Amino acid sequence: MRAYISKLVISAALVFQLPALHGAGAGASPERKQKELEAAVVAAAAAPNADLTKLQCGNLVYAGNKSSICFADKFLGEVAHTTNLNVGLNFTPVKLDSDDVFNFPFCVWSGEDTFTLAKKDRDNLRKYLLNGGFILSSPGCSDPKWDAALRKELKLIFPEYNLVKIPMSHPIFSVVNPISQLTDKQGKTAFIEGLEINGRLVMVYSKDGLNDVSNAKGCCCCGGNMIMESILVNVNVFTYSLLY
């Protein structure tokens, strides 16, 4: 792999799935969600040694104890099924402000409501993406507050780069699954954006949603939008991130 993240091919990440990340149903209060996320962070910090034989996908914990409870990991199983990649099938919570984040070749980044990253979060995110890491991101339930916060943070961290619309001719739409068009759940044409640094795509982002919420346990996102081809896109993005 690239630069000092070369060790990510056999990632030092744990294969487990925290029940706390899936306990918040559609009627859960914000207070309950916050307590469950805090419990997940504590459990992640106390986890046993990792399985070093698999490529792992991190679920970023950022801005204190914020993280995703509405991003499905089903696409990891599809990657394992359709490619020869030895992939861990579950997300592993990882703190953005810790050195552990550099043990992951690929992370998902999602959440709800507004947020502000701490300096260590910002420093690590810049270092991670400049040195071989890759992030797949979209807000939980198409939350416009989260979308606005992410765009603000990216401009602070990468003032010299912008999120731009990715053309359908890009390899992320063909590397495994051929995708000719993106549609949202209303049947309208959708698009995804990307952050490119020095000619390398390092982040894929959708304001509508690549979270595949129908396969995310304990999450309904009844008011949110979603890209219907999200699993196919996510399989392609994960594979692309390791090949290019």
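Second entry:
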Amino acid sequence: MDVSDTQLTETGLHTDGSSKVLLLACGAIAREVIAIQQANGLTHLDLHCLPAIYHNTPDKITPAVVEAVTAHRDHYDEIFVLYADCGTGGQLQAACDKLGVKMLEGPHCYSFFEGNGAFAARDEMTAFYLTDFLVRQFDAFVWKPLGLDRHPELLEMYFGNYDKLVYQAQTNDPKLTEKAKDCADKMGLNFERRFTAYGDLQKSLIPFENNGL
């Protein structure tokens, strides 16, 4: 995929395909969705991604999804929304139900990457999570939006109640692991790496493999 993380963050990824099924996803999981497609022969599914930066402003997610579904639904037999609740307080699920489209299960991407059941069982209230994408985009999603590049004294206020940074690795990339460790050091948190791969995201897409589309 010839697209930068900056593009996925700011503008997303736009489809020009002609499949019967559209995957409408957050830009933060675009590379993971494409990797699953390529590994499982799902390249017949079109992928359209909304800007990943909505991760920081969840109130924008539901109206953006509604707008995208409305704009694309006449061109597809089915649209699958690749968002979990993602901080929308149930509004996204309600909107998808009204639109008649399915969406991912779970509260957020950290949960479905680890597996919703496994994540819920951990009940970790003092862990801060990063995925591959968020490790690469740590400054854009965490450090600069919180003003920590200008006011490092705010670090204790934001993260004083956390005790560890959990890097949920979708891939085995030593450079990303080192960068994730650096992020934990900057935040003054203990570091833990968990190789999750694609978790429930992959499971949710596998049914499309043999559906005859």
